[in-house]
Amino acid sequence: MSPAGPDQINALLEATPRGATIYLVGAGGCGVSGLGHLLLDLGFSVAGSDLALNEEIEQLRARGAQILLGHEAGRVAAARPALLVYSSAIRPDNLELIEAQGLRVPIVRRAVLLAALQRRQDGICVAGMHGKTTTSAWLAFALERLGAQPSWAVGAAVPQLSRAARYRVAPDRSQHWFVAEADESDGTLREFSPQHAIILNVDQEHFDYFANFDAVCAEFAGFAREVRGDLIFCADDPHLAGLFGAFPRAHSYGFNALAEYCVRPQATLAGEDGSRFEVWHRERRLGAFGIRLLGEKNISNATAVIALLDRMGFAADAIAEALAPFQGAARRQQELFHDARYRVCDDYGHHPNEIRATLQALKTSGARRLLVAFQPHRYSRTLHLLPQFATCFQLADQLWLTEIYAASEPPIAGVSGAGVAEAVRATGRTAEFADRVDDLPRLVRQAMQPGDLVLFLGAGDITRAAHQLAADLRNERPTAGEGAAAELSARLSAAATLRQNEPLAKRTTLRVGGRADIYVEPASEADLAAVLRYCAERNLPFVLLGRGSNLLIRDGGIRGVVICLAHPNFSRVEVTGERIHCGAGAKLKAVAMAARRSGLSGLEFLEGIPGSVGGGLRMNAGAMGAWMFDAVESIRFMDFDGQTHERKASEVNVEYRGCPLFKTHIALGATLKGQAAPVAAIEERMRAYSQKRWTSQPAAPSAGCIFKNPATIPAGKLIDELGLKGTNVGHAAVSILHGNFIVNDGGAAASDVLNLIELIRQRARAARGIELETEVEIIGEDATS
What we know:
alpha/beta, Rossmann fold, Protein-Tyrosine Phosphatase, Chain A, 6-stranded mixed beta sheet, elongated
């Protein structure tokens, strides 16, 4: 049997002896677990069940509640409860619900029991589609600091309150307030009959329950008629203004100039440490207020609390002091990690309007970039609001989406997280899709740069990924220049890339080497100059990395800063007549292809060199009997003080496999000159070069030629004559195609390559008296350093 409403529930509870058991189905849910605490406060015993263990269940167990995992027949009979409580997430075919019905145990919905308990005191309800958890927690926190000793039931953990729900039993009911977060999603809002209420907003939501938006508005209007005292509503919501503008005992608040409690926009200030604003009551300045939470929505929520507390007779100065220290509810802009490099936040937002407001708030935090991971919640919401989801992430600098959290809903054909990602991409934004929530910490971490703020959003289990990333960051090894990364990041444009502890093996053609303490890809010459000046100020060493050919990085990696000009702004290739203007980051192959398309000969040899223009200039790269500077007309470069220069190639000293200028300067780009020729002839020459290369050089990862050619014999021929082709150390081997190539057969370490180099040098010295000099550039620290 099911009692009809709150009054009948209270009559049942009054007739039930203290110590009797109340059974909770879905005891780990935020709403039902709160009821468990209220019932324990009232002296009842609590038993129940849920599918998985969580912090809410552990808190109830710590207070003596008998909460079991899983839903099984026989448990209700064993508990012999006086009442069974269930949430809207529990399906009608739940075994324990069916058992209770058979045993004729009274059954009640979560919201109805909460409404019944609130009626025992002077109730204050906070309702609305968005922000009610934060606002109800804020109101309870303020009343506690104002000495009112309230009861409360909030839909999330609140670190500054003892727990999410608390019932204070007192013989004197005067000024004994009960603050409750009232949920509209399942049609139970009208069960409440509070003394006062705050309504924050109304939105296109919960169409799995309501037939249309008119039905949603009717639910709020019906609730308002149950309010006996003051009704505080947001004047910035046009639907609420229409519903309650002429409502008896209604008082408006907001940024709207017509609001009774008005936030003066010119006095609003948001910053990294919170927000400051003024509130005016009609023509009277009520006071100045400061809060720790960010964003206009939190200013608005705070103003709702201020308006109600003012109506209740509290002084403005006391209200300001009571509100100021509030740090928010769990999963509402909750900061999980913060150091000199990164911030990680977790938020419950799952409606497009909530998402948009949260991103807007966090954009004021001073973060360099805002990285967002979102888990859609419910198939029905995703279906109805897909156009809004497609456009609500505009402020995210990078976005990941994962599969929909069903929340007990059956799937809807054609509705998926991948579909949301496609809808976002259709607006011109980028969005990555991760099929599994557990993949998000790894994917997000790979993209993070110092100065980033990472936000995990959603009402489902995405919070698990947020906590995992925070834990991973706490466990990361510190690197040299740990504080330098955040300082340097602040000097760079948002388009630049900066990472710490960056693996460098993937950035070399040999695929070996350790990590860089700080890895930077400047987005402009100004960024590059900023990096050089910062390194000079802090006495940080730096290394310039091209495309990673002709390079061997030791296993201990590189201390200090690694600079790579791989950003598209440094990789442009433009052809004007017989001249090719190219950035230092452009691939040499791309230059050769551009020359071919434009009918310019003389640059075909570049097609097979796996490097960049900058690296080619620095090493005076060559192939097929031609050299880089044979084609260079002029160069542009930067000194280590960040000043740019230009010089004709004829004014630059070059040598075999090197250009001394670039030992103390950084190449920014060059102008190359070709000669007009038939495209077919150029293509034929390139095919011939390519054929020769593939038949004489290995396809496996290598750094190109390892040794410079001695004066008396080519290094490859010498190594072949020494019988060293195929010789290996670990997974590094001398190529069987070309003796001057060392290849990575898979899994080689830099130490394998270095030991093989030394073996070859010893054999050349002992057998021929020849001292082989390495052509490949060897940099970095030994692994034991």
